[in-house]
């Protein structure tokens, strides 16, 4: 039998404990991910033999592991090394600018196609 004056864990204490432990684990995961990504070699050269590398298609789990556009899966022609390489800031900025320009050009083409469609529909309805 439990005494009325005995102290113990309440439901709110348990919830606070779980939230604190879960947030500590998430913070540790985030920190370790940042450290891991910082350790990845930057550039297009093989970290083993300094040879040329080729980009390999990211499919399956490699899409998750490679953490977006900043990293690429690579394969070395000379020694057969395969792994992740970090793209430089200049490459990322160039790629974003290329995508922005493509979107602008594509939206301009779409607008001109819509305008042609509207004029052709107006001429058909006017007959």
Structure report:
The mean pLDDT is about 80. The relative contact order is 0.09. The protein starts with 10 loop residues before the first helix and ends with a helix. The protein is about 55% helix and about 10% strand. The longest helix is centred in the C-terminal third of the chain and has 37 residues, at about 90-125. The chain has helices at about 10-40, 60-65, 90-125; strands at about 55, 70-75, 80-85. It is flat. The chain has about 130 residues and is mainly alpha-helical. The protein has a 3-stranded antiparallel sheet with strand order 1-2-3, with no helix packed on it.
Residue share in β-strands: 5-15%
**Structural class based on helices, strands and sheet pairing:** mainly alpha
Q: Outline the low-pLDDT stretches.
A: none
The total strand number stands at: 3
Measured on Cα atoms, how large is the radius of gyration? 28 Å
Largest sheet: 3 strands, antiparallel
Separate helix tally: 3
Overall mean pLDDT stands at: 81
N- to C-terminal distance: 94 Å
Spatially, the strands of the biggest sheet line up as 1-2-3
How much helix is in the residues?
Answer: 55-70%
Task: Tell the overall outline.
Answer: flat
Secondary-structure element sequence?
HEHEEH
Quick overview:
By secondary structure, the chain is mainly alpha-helical. The protein is built from 3 helices and 3 strands. It has a 3-stranded antiparallel beta sheet with strand order 1-2-3, with no helix packed on it.
């Amino acid at each position: 039998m439990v005494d009325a004056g005995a102290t113990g864990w309440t439901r709110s204490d348990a919830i606070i404990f779980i939230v604190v432990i879960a947030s500590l684990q998430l913070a540790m995961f985030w920190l370790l991910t940042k450290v891991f990504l910082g350790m990845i070699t930057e550039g297009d050269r093989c970290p083993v033999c300094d040879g040329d590398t080729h980009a390999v298609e990211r499919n399956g789990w490699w899409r998750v592991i490679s953490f977006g556009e900043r990293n690429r899966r690579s394969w070395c022609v000379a020694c057969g090394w395969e792994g992740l390489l970090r793209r430089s800031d200049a490459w990322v900025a160039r790629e974003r600018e290329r995508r922005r320009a493509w979107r602008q050009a594509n939206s301009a083409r779409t607008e001109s196609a819509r305008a042609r469609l509207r004029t052709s529909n107006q001429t058909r309805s006017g007959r």
